[in-house]
Amino acid sequence: MPKLVLYKDRCKGCALCTLACPKHLLEISTEINRQGYYVISLAAPGKCNGCGLCAEMCPDMAIEVWR
Amino acid sequence: MPKLVLYKDRCKGCALCTLACPKHLLEISTEINRQGYYVISLAAPGKCNGCGLCAEMCPDMAIEVWR
Amino acid sequence: MKPVFKRPKSLYDVPFHYCPGCHHGIAHRLIAEAIDALGIQERVVAVASIGCSVFLYDYFAVDVLEAPHGRAPAVGTGIKRARPESIVFTYQGDGDLAAIGLAETIHAANRGEQLAVFFINNTIYGMTGGQMAPTTLPGQKTTTTPLGRRVIGEGAPLKMAEMIAALKPPAFVARVAVNNSKSIFQAKKAVQQAFRIQVEGKGYAFVEFLSACPTNWKMTPCEANRHVSEALIPEFPLGIFKGDL
Amino acid sequence: MKPVFKRPKSLYDVPFHYCPGCHHGIAHRLIAEAIDALGIQERVVAVASIGCSVFLYDYFAVDVLEAPHGRAPAVGTGIKRARPESIVFTYQGDGDLAAIGLAETIHAANRGEQLAVFFINNTIYGMTGGQMAPTTLPGQKTTTTPLGRRVIGEGAPLKMAEMIAALKPPAFVARVAVNNSKSIFQAKKAVQQAFRIQVEGKGYAFVEFLSACPTNWKMTPCEANRHVSEALIPEFPLGIFKGDL
Amino acid sequence: MYFDVIISGFGGQGILFMGNLLAHAAMLEGKNVTYMPAYGPEMRGGAANCTVVVADEEIGSPVIYHPHTAIVMNRPSLYKFGPRLLRGGLLVVNSSLVDPAEVIYKGINLLFVPANDLAREAGDDRLGNMAALGALITKTGVVRLQSLTDALSEVIQKKYRDLLPVNIKCLEKGATYVKNLKSQI
Amino acid sequence: MYFDVIISGFGGQGILFMGNLLAHAAMLEGKNVTYMPAYGPEMRGGAANCTVVVADEEIGSPVIYHPHTAIVMNRPSLYKFGPRLLRGGLLVVNSSLVDPAEVIYKGINLLFVPANDLAREAGDDRLGNMAALGALITKTGVVRLQSLTDALSEVIQKKYRDLLPVNIKCLEKGATYVKNLKSQI
Amino acid sequence: MRKTEAVYNRKLVKGNEAIALGAIAAGCRFYAGYPITPQNEIPEFMAGRMPAVGGTFIQAESEIAAISMVMGAAATGARAMTSSSSPGISLKQEAISYMAGSEIPCVVVNVCRSGPGLGGISASQGDYFQATRGGGHGDYRTFVLAPHSVQESYDLTMLAFDIADRYRTPVLVLSDAVLGQMKEPVYLRGYKGREIRKPWALTGAKGRKARYLKSLYLNEGELTARNWKLFRKYRRMEKEIRYEMYLTEDAEAIVVAFGCAARILKTSIQMARTKGMRVGMFRPISLFPFPSQALAAISNRVNRFLVCELNTGQMVEDVRLAVKPGATVESCLCPGYIPTPNELFREIKKRYLASNP
Amino acid sequence: MRKTEAVYNRKLVKGNEAIALGAIAAGCRFYAGYPITPQNEIPEFMAGRMPAVGGTFIQAESEIAAISMVMGAAATGARAMTSSSSPGISLKQEAISYMAGSEIPCVVVNVCRSGPGLGGISASQGDYFQATRGGGHGDYRTFVLAPHSVQESYDLTMLAFDIADRYRTPVLVLSDAVLGQMKEPVYLRGYKGREIRKPWALTGAKGRKARYLKSLYLNEGELTARNWKLFRKYRRMEKEIRYEMYLTEDAEAIVVAFGCAARILKTSIQMARTKGMRVGMFRPISLFPFPSQALAAISNRVNRFLVCELNTGQMVEDVRLAVKPGATVESCLCPGYIPTPNELFREIKKRYLASNP
Ligand SMILES: Cc1ncc(C[n+]2csc(CCOP(=O)(O)OP(=O)(O)O)c2C)c(N)n1
Ligand SMILES: Cc1ncc(C[n+]2csc(CCOP(=O)(O)OP(=O)(O)O)c2C)c(N)n1
Ligand code: SF4
Ligand code: SF4
Ligand code: SF4
Ligand code: SF4
Ligand code: SF4
Ligand code: SF4
Ligand SMILES: [Mg+2]
Ligand SMILES: [Mg+2]
Fold first, then answer.
1. pLDDT in tens, D225-236
2. How far apart are the CA of A36 and the centre of ligand 4, in A?
């Protein structure tokens, strides 16, 4: 199963990754990180195909994808 | 008869007017003016049709043409 | 497991100072990836310009020189000529490259300097707080065009990629966007090509990025991202204007 | 008898300091004739730039401001905006307009300033004694390109008329020559049109003159004159690039 | 009379507006006042702070490194300005966003104001800034509440006019909160 | 020993070359020397002049307003520098182009040299400059003729190498002309 | 300021806005500038206000273009201004030299930040030399006014236009990041000066001979004459010298400071006074011409001077040149940061006690 | 110079060419410039010679581009130079400030002409203030060397590169139109200095951590530290101070002058000596740091100074600041033209007689 690593403290809650995921698996959570931003969360890890498009889109490289 | 007035002291002997005259009436003379240049002269005044092309070409406005 | 996406090694592992949703971060990463891909990290000397991206040296693990505002192409020329074995790129905003630095930009291109010039066109002065840039869209409100930019009197958006492609010497000129996966993929190729050309000694390369500035556009990151396709791309068409991928 | 050709009244009756066969004199006269023809002498404020033509004020019987090297378009912008009733023209060499002043040139054009810009392209720095200009021809020898200009490294001849015509706001852009009667006739029309456009409030006009510099080309005046048709015009085609006569 | 305060938080919290408003109110009372925003690239991250000095005498420096008073509207601000407060000074902490347990500084006076909670009660939890300001002036008496509300109606942009009442309500909430604290003591 | 001269004429006359050559010759003789060309926009009209100072001591100013010596190769130069010559100085006049009758200055020594005519006799009437220079050094003894010809072969550009003999001949012509004058006296 | 004015006619504005307000009040109808922190409020204010008053605002393509536009506008007789901050001011030097040489008046505002190079955006007085010694090439000076409050930012900007026109010279308003960014109540007194006729302005040769404005002088003696003319003018400008003396009457030691350093110092001096130290302050308001005579006069009485500036020692030279031989002039230097009143007080105390043990 | 050298190894070149020759001898392999009278011989010489020695010549699009190119080249560790004349030097001030702030060495040549503005092309010393006070914005200085002969133009240019590298600072060679245009025999001694390692140079991060060169310092205290660091460096540079004393031992009055004014003055002083006036000359060769201590030492003995400069009074301030209290410092000013030795002699005489009646 592909693995998606989220570096929460790097996330700025911009939500661009949510636009990029072809499966609409990502959304902004209610969790605030140290920088004061609401971070992203992966709704259904099992559905993630590890395509990496979310990571490609993230301006802050808060996502790493392994497959 | 058309009249061609030459302001000799303005002439710099560049000879551009000689190129411009469709009738090839102008040529550089052996006369030196106050600036030290060989000035132009009109070979056959009678043949000049007063077209003014020589004057249009002269960078120093040394020629005036009347008709 | 293999990484599908991992931070390029030419970038230090530190957070960017950019605002949420700012495309500078994506452009940085694409450049770093290309440096990694071509294995040129040890040869690169980058030129930081004055704008939000002035802190380039805090992010890129390559040698960096901070140029005076607008002068990056001239500074880059000096570096490359003095050390031809270096791979030199400049990274410049639209204020920097197209306003104060326009003469330097065009002349370096017109000399065919061996440089990769990365141009971040976000239609605004980011760092100084949202003033009009040479690429500001007609009608766009900025702090110095409170009623929206008028073409006559305040200028038409300068089409830098086109202007540079019209010169003879440049080898490669492209305009890209990074507001969705597809355009990022294209951008990645253009950036690599810009470096490859220099590695092969083929001359000057110019890549214009259409880039979002949510903060000074006064939009959310997602709105800003959409604005790139809806407003910027129609004004600044994407494509390869000179050379090929 | 009527005068077929007489000195225009916007020029003082004094000799020019230009070298024999220099085309600056012809350009001056055409501009003065246009001023006379449109009856605008009392409204004109001219901007002299730094180059062989810096002494503009010794020749033109109009108000003149001497601009810093390359800044004439910006200076002209200031004059025109502060006094819209003035008719403003700049007169600039290729070093002035296309090298140091390139940014000012393009930005004034791109704002569509109400200016007439007369550009004397003699492919050389005349006043300073024959150094390379941005318009120097490939292979042309100058004091700073002793082996002839190389396009890669020293630059391709900048095509200013084309570059400016590619911008949206300019109303009229032309390139003319003055090396024979026919081209002088065309040039005369272009100059008049450049002023007429401003009188009618229609915007920015640009007229590029291909101009001989016998002294620094190290040619006789007649050779230099011929060089304009044989070498300059093939590189810099004449024509109206924007607007019409 | 001399008073200074550094107000700090993140960009969206209306930090500069607080400072402005306080300065305006002081001006309306005929006092000397300076307002100094922090600005520039260091603000890119989203932090915001400003300094207000109010005095009867001519004011020297509008820049204060060690203030008599500070309002910290979020955690990073606490870490930045808590240590800088003068001994014996007053630290106003937005306890809606900052855990009082984190406030470990000695020798200073503390005022915890659940600013965003108060604001929510007043009708708009984004107006924590107003609640905190109401609390501050009530605690210190630097300006009168009335001056603040007067200033508010002068300062507020036209398009936010309709938010005037809720802003005032938040100011009052903060003021009342402190009055109640006082009476509790 | 101190000597200064202003050499003046129009562009095509090789004025700067004269000065250069003289300076070079002085250098070959181990003397101190300065050469200063006039330059810049004022030259556009076609005028040319330069100043050479030769001395045993360190040379102060290379710029001389009132020279001890002047060579005027054409009429405008006569008008410009004639009046500037020091009382008792020497004026060398190119009488091929300047009518001696126009030389009206008092209290100075005059040397008329038909430079272009001498040069024509030597084979190239454009080399009046060399004839004038030959005359000058013979009259003043500032450098030896041999030094001038040595200098000439060092200075002359490769492509003009074949003109070396005629140049030397012109120098000599000028020198002889003066010698003859002297012997006539 | 009387209380009533204070209450009823004051506006709370930034120093930068006060400069823009002062300019417009003084009839400035042409502004061109280029963004740079910390002076952006000036162009931004002008962008909003100029069209409303029938004036012109241009965001130029660069600082050089901006000052060149100002040169053009001012040559027509218009009151014209540009503003920038340190690096941008360096770029304007060539054109300022041209305007000085062509005797075209204008106002240039430098909201000084720290240098050299890109430096930082905090307040600094590192451009003192550049401001007072002409800055650009050639023999010229600009009149320099240094406000120390928002009120003065407003007042002195108005004055700057008057002086510029009166002497046909560029006038520099030397503000700094603190003064530009801080808000303070300002009493908008309105313009009390008078615009003068400009018989030299380029307005088109209608009913008169054509004119020109230039700085090129090639004929023998012309440039020398021009240099001396400017020199005499700079002497005449000494009539406009301005300074403030604070608690100097009985002072045994004088601190010299200008701009934001001076306002901070006032507090330090109050602190010193409460400790019984007889210290006063001398604040040059015009930096060029420098109030040398006034300082010299003080130095007849007082012989200890401390110059406090936000740089590594620039104005101290002018103070040394001004005071009588025998006076000691020391420096207290704060490059790249804003000192606290306390810090300056300690400096004063240290030196005061050293000589009054 | 011994006669043999003089005869056999001298070349007759212009001061401008001597500068170019000195630069190339010192290992300068990068030159960028933009045409301007009276320094065109430098770029023209470089255009011909640089390719032959494997170096780079670029005619830049402007003076600003030229100095920026030099900044880039110098940042890689190359010895790099640009040259211009007064208006062009004004345009370079921003970048010079950047290089000072980033501690990047380079050599900038100013073949000074007359100003302000376009001014004229005759020699001038009107840029003294600009040269010695940093010129651009912010707290920095450049080392300034002022030759007074063609020989020194050659020698000091070589030295300039050494000082630049040693102190990581821009060094200004302040020549003028007379020195640049005149030819004089020069003994081409060749470079005797030593190029030093540059462990800060940007050469690509191979086998080491990546580096950067910058002038931006935003974190609290950093910029202040940088300003003080530069300040201390400028103090250290005092080791390199150079000056010439001419007939000063028994002098009762000293004339201070530099550059082409000094060589003219030498003649005037010889004239004065023949009339029995005990006058000497002090010639600063480094203008910054200024040889203040040497002057101060002289002023222990001599108390009359005359400063002679081709401007309306600039170096006179440095002389006033240097000499002991009680010394009188007068000025003899020649803006916009070259004085004759006679004229300066008369000035000397007038003043000498006034105090030795
Ligand atoms: C000479 C000079 N002028 C102005 C500035 C101020 N300044 C800093 S960044 C900048 C422009 C920023 O805009 P842009 O180049 O578009 O970059 P962005 O921040 O949008 O990425 C300006 C004008 C400066 N530092 N130096
Ligand atoms: C800032 C500055 N740089 C350089 C110069 C020197 N300069 C005078 S005229 C000129 C260029 C002349 O060439 P061009 O503009 O082509 O005019 P031309 O003489 O050929 O008509 C230059 C570089 C100057 N005066 N000012
Ligand atoms: S890797 Fe692909 S599928 Fe998985 S979350 Fe990211 S974009 Fe969606
Ligand atoms: S794109 Fe990156 S920073 Fe933005 S929300 Fe997604 S993970 Fe966070
Ligand atoms: S007027 Fe015409 S025909 Fe007569 S000389 Fe001139 S060009 Fe020839
Ligand atoms: S064109 Fe004019 S200047 Fe030239 S030769 Fe003819 S008349 Fe004389
Ligand atoms: S201001 Fe704009 S360009 Fe700058 S970091 Fe923020 S979003 Fe990016
Ligand atoms: S140098 Fe050239 S451009 Fe200048 S006047 Fe002479 S011919 Fe004309
Ligand atoms: Mg931008
Ligand atoms: Mg030209």
1. 999 999 999 999
2. 13
Provide the CATH number for the domain around residue A55. Answer: 3.30.70.20
Q: Cα–Cα distances in Å, from D44 out to B29, D76, D88, D201?
A: 40, 11, 6, 14
Q: Which ligand is nearest to the CA of A45?
A: 3
Which of the four pLDDT bands, split at 50, 70 and 90, describes residue B1?
confident
Where is pLDDT greater, at E11 or D163?
A: D163
Least confident among D119-123, E99-103, G100-104, G278-282: E99-103
Residues lower than pLDDT 50 in chain G:
1-3, 6
Query: Can you give the CATH number for the domain in which E102 is found?
Result: 3.40.920.10
Distance A5 CA to ligand 3 centre (A): 11
Partner-chain residue, chosen from C100, C110, C153, that has the shortest CB–CB distance to D158? C110
Q: From the CA of G115, how many Å to the nearest CA of chain D?
A: 26
pLDDT in tens, B5-60: 999 999 999 999 999 999 999 999 988 887 778 899 998 989 999 999 999 999 99
Which of 166-225 (C) contact G at CB < 8 A? none
Secondary structure class of H43 (helix, strand, coil): helix
Cβ of B7 under 8 Å from any chain D Cβ? no
**Separation in Å, CA G248 to CA B10, G214, G270, G301:** 71, 46, 12, 10
**What value does the mean pLDDT take over residues H68-73?**
98
The number of residues in chain G equals 357
Interface-testing mutation among B3, B10, B14, B19, with chain D (most D C-beta atoms within 10 A): B14
Mean pLDDT of D74-90: 98
**Contact (Cβ atoms closer than 8 angstroms) between residue E104 and residue E84:** no
Q: Which two tokens stand for residue H114?
A: 């007359």
Cβ-based neighbours of H217, under 8 Å, separated by 6 or more? G119, G120, G336, H223, H225, H226
Residue H2 has pLDDT above 50, yes or no: no
Kindly tell me the burial class for residue H41, based on how many C-beta atoms sit within 10 Å of its own C-beta (0-12, 13-18, 19 or more): buried
Q: How confident is the model at residue F45 (pLDDT cuts 50, 70, 90)?
A: low
A-chain CB neighbours of C185 within 8 Å are 56
Contacts of G37 in chain C (CB under 8 A): 127-129
Q: Which chains are adjacent to chain D, needing at least 3 Cβ pairs under 8 Å?
A: B, C, F, G, H
Count how many domains chain B has. 1
Please tell me if residue G25 touches chain H, with a CB cutoff of 8 Å.
Answer: no
Contacting subunits of G (3+ beta carbon pairs below 8 A) = C, D, E, F, H
From chain C, pick out residues whose CB is under 8 angstroms from the CB of H102: 65-66
Q: Count the domains in chain E.
A: 1
SS3 H106: strand
The domain in which residue E165 lies consists of: 2-184
Residue G128 sits at the vertex; the CA angle it makes with G127 and G130, to the nearest 5 degrees, is: 65
Judged against a pLDDT cut of 70, whether residue C180 lies above it is answered with yes
Question: What interhelical angle do F164-184 and F145-155 show, nearest 10?
Answer: 160
pLDDT beyond 90 at E131: yes
Mean pLDDT, rounded, for D32-58: 97
- H/E run at residue A35: none
Query: Ligand 6 within 6 A of B53 CB?
Result: no
Is E46's CB within 8 Å of C19's CB?
Answer: yes
Domain that holds residue A12: 3-66
> What pLDDT, on a 0 to 100 scale, did the predictor assign at position G9?
75
User: Which residue ranges form the domains of chain C, and what is each CATH number?
Assistant: 24-242 (3.40.50.970)
How far is the centre of ligand 9, averaged over its atoms, from the C-alpha of C174 (Å)?
18
pTM above 0.95, yes or no: yes
| Residue H14 CB contacts under 8 Å (≥ 6 apart), including other chains | H41, H150, H180, H181, H182, H183
Q: Which residue of G has its CA nearest to C134?
A: G61
Query: Best of A28, A61, A65 to mutate for ligand 3, by most ligand atoms within 8 A of CB?
Result: A65
